[in-house]
Write a sequence for this structure.
């Protein structure tokens, strides 16, 4: 089946094309769309591209960080101000994937992929969208929940508050093929501290549902409490609440449920 490629100079034109053509897909780095085309996905008849440099804009100097949807993981690894995200970006694929894969594209990666999105969920990111309905900012949790149902549009950027300290953001990926394999389980957490108590706790999990999800039971077990053994035990006991992992070639759903608590404990204890 022939595929039409349309390239636009501005993100506005690209967003309009996506909104007007039901069988159009946006091509950023191509790690998802080109794979689908190569595998014979006949639902894609039009590929939309944009050369607008605004999509690769970075703002990393202030307390709120903005990453353009077209920013690659290799670019993130080159930015000193984004050092807390280097373990995340470095865990995604090999050099070729990191050179092409983008922040915006990762939002659409199916489990067991989408590790960067897990980190963004833990950081309570906001997704800037442009479509036929106009422009809007959407909390990432809402975006992920409605990802397959929302009107077609273009992701412009994601933004989030810089972690309050180097220790506040934590990330851990379990993969059978390191460093570039699909995830058995991915965990990210933002745990700030005030007066010896955890505040603003957000724990996100990858490969534990169709999209990245928050471990809200574990969050409740820690919020406002000391990060001690007893409270970590309570968080571990609650971490699988609301999850629905699948069986795949990397791990069974049973195995994922069994090991996610082990790795949450290690993450919260700061173990390598």
């Amino acid at each position: 089946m022939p595929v039409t490629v349309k390239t636009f100079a501005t993100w506005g034109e690209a967003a309009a094309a996506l909104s007007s053509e039901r069988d159009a897909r946006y091509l950023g780095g191509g790690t998802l769309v080109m794979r689908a085309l190569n595998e014979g996905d006949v639902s894609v008849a039009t590929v939309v591209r944009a050369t607008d440099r605004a999509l690769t804009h970075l703002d990393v100097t202030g307390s709120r960080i903005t990453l353009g949807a077209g920013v690659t993981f290799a670019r993130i690894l080159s930015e000193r101000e984004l050092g807390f995200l280097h373990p995340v970006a470095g865990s995604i694929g090999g050099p070729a994937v990191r050179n092409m894969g983008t922040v915006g594209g990762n939002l659409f990666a199916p489990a067991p992929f989408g590790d960067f999105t897990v980190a963004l969920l833990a950081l309570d990111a906001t997704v800037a969208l442009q479509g036929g309905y106009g422009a809007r900012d959407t909390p990432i949790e809402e975006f992920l929940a409605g990802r397959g149902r929302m009107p077609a549009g273009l992701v412009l950027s994601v933004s989030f508050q810089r972690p309050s300290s180097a220790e506040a953001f934590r990330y851990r990926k379990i993969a059978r093929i390191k460093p570039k394999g699909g995830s058995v389980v991915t965990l990210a957490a933002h745990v700030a501290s005030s007066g010896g108590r955890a505040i603003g706790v957000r724990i996100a999990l990858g490969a534990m549902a169709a999209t990245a999800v928050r471990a809200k039971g574990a969050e409740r077990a820690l919020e406002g409490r000391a990060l001690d053994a007893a409270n970590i035990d309570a968080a571990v006991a609650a971490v699988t609440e609301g999850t629905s992992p699948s069986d795949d070639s990397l791990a069974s759903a049973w195995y994922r449920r069994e090991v996610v608590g082990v790795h949450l404990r290690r993450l919260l204890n700061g173990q390598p």
